[in-house]
Amino acid sequence: MIYRIPRAARELSQLELDFSGSGTRFLLYPQPPILPGFEEPETVWVSTPPREIQPGPEDARMYVADAVAKTPYEFPDMPPYRGAMNAPATPGADGHFDHLRPGTHQFEAAHMFGTVHWVMDIWEAYFGAPIEWHFSEDLPRMELVPWLDWDNAHSGYGFIEAGYRLDDSGRKFPMNLNFDVLAHEFGHSMLYAKIGLPPPGKATTSFFAFHESASDLVGIIALLHFDSIVDLLLERTSGDLYPRNVLNRVGEVSPTKQIRMASNDLTMSDVADLSTPPDQLSHRERHDVSLPLTGAVFDLLVEIFQQNLVDRRLIDPALDDMSRRGVKDAAQLEAVDRRFDAAFARAPVGFKHALVDARDTLGLYLADVWSRLTWDVHFGDILGLLLEADRARTGGWYRVEIENVFARHGIYLDMN
Ligand SMILES: [Zn+2]
């Protein structure tokens, strides 16, 4: 049986992220609405007040250029787009954008703007400062192109633009409605701003792998700001988030792909060596090199969450010890499941707060780490800086967890 979290238990974040009343309303799909269970969009408040968002939408940070029949930007092309456009999305009489109907250009334009802006709001809260675009010397604002007849999406110098992905029946499903994809592309833009760009010809495999991993993490942390996603994750797993459950239970009800990919058993010895020059790796291999790092950070989320549960007496330390990644013994897995079911049923709201707090702890730590990295990134430095962030913020409360999850995925302090 699945225990339901009372709907009244809204998330309680310690961060300045509640713009209800002051910001502007948008309707966002946490996952593509072609997936069962995600047919209805949710209301999200973006930080900019209604009077400061113009039709488009556009504000001081970004604007939609809803181009008709545009081809993807290719160097040296760059914004602003000056060709034909669809009619802009206009706000309702109250200044909000949640009146638009799905299935229209205007809804999709607002969905892309709302998603990218909200993910930016979330990460600016973690950084405690506005993100200064890496292209700000040339372009004051980011351009968002919601639709290209192209089976891809990308971010580049001054823009994010989105095409389509084919759904199961071969139809083109627009990526402007895919939260994970848009958040990931925003992640790349944010990281260019934070760690800079390598000089021509200097980019390393570690740089590319870090970028892919961190962009996925930008998306996962942002995704966990949807109440419905936190509830779904907990209700399907009873808070036992290690892979058997995340893969089987979340995966079967909703392809929350980001989470399934992040929850992995890979170590650095399963993927290409970081010293391999990037031009000798296929696109696929470059992405796969990022997975052990993503896996380590995802495991850290789980470990911080479980430590919060122990600290708040919502599970006992013995259960925390029993539920480890890589446990194969069927009887032990079964026992862990049963005990998590019982513990979650006793305190579903406490579990939710423990997960939301773990999310924010990790978001703050990652912001600390990414603020100090340069483009010449080494995996060992990421571990070292995480330990420093933990020391600075909590006196090292999660040190053992950080060391364990990185060792589990084959990442050590002296690593390239
Ligand atoms: Zn990417």
Question: What does this 3D model show about the protein?
Answer:
This protein is of the alpha/beta class. It has two domains: 17-197, Elastase, domain 1 (Roll), CATH 3.10.170.10; 204-416, no CATH class. It has 13 helices and eight strands. It has helices at 105-127, 179-195, 205-223, 227-237, 243-253, 257-262, 283-288, 291-311, 317-322, 330-346, 348-372, 379-394, 399-408; strands spanning 24-28, 42-46, 62-64, 142-145, 153-156, 159-162, 164-166, 172-174. The strands form three sheets. A four-stranded mixed sheet has the order 3-4-6-5, covered by helices on one side. The protein has a two-stranded antiparallel sheet with strand order 1-2. Strand 5 and strand 6 (159-162) form a beta hairpin. The radius of gyration is 21 Å and the shape is globular. Zinc ion is lined by residues 184, 188, 212, 215.
Task: Summarize this entry quickly.
With 416 residues, this protein is α/β, with parallel strands linked by helices.
The total of helices stands at: 13
The total of beta strands comes to: 8
Radius of gyration: 21 Å
Content-based structural category: alpha/beta
Distance between the termini: 47 Å
Provide mean pLDDT, rounded.
90
Name the beta content range: 5-15%
Characterize the overall form.
globular
Whole-number count of domains: 2
Main beta sheet, described?
A: 4 strands, mixed
Q: From N to C, what is the helix and strand string? A: EEEHEEEEEHHHHHHHHHHHH
Please give the order of strands in the largest beta sheet: 3-4-6-5
The small-molecule ligands in this entry are: zinc ion
Which ranges are low-confidence, i.e. pLDDT below 50, for 5 or more consecutive residues? 6-12
Roughly what percent helix?
A: 40-55%
What kind of assembly state do the chains in view correspond to? single chain
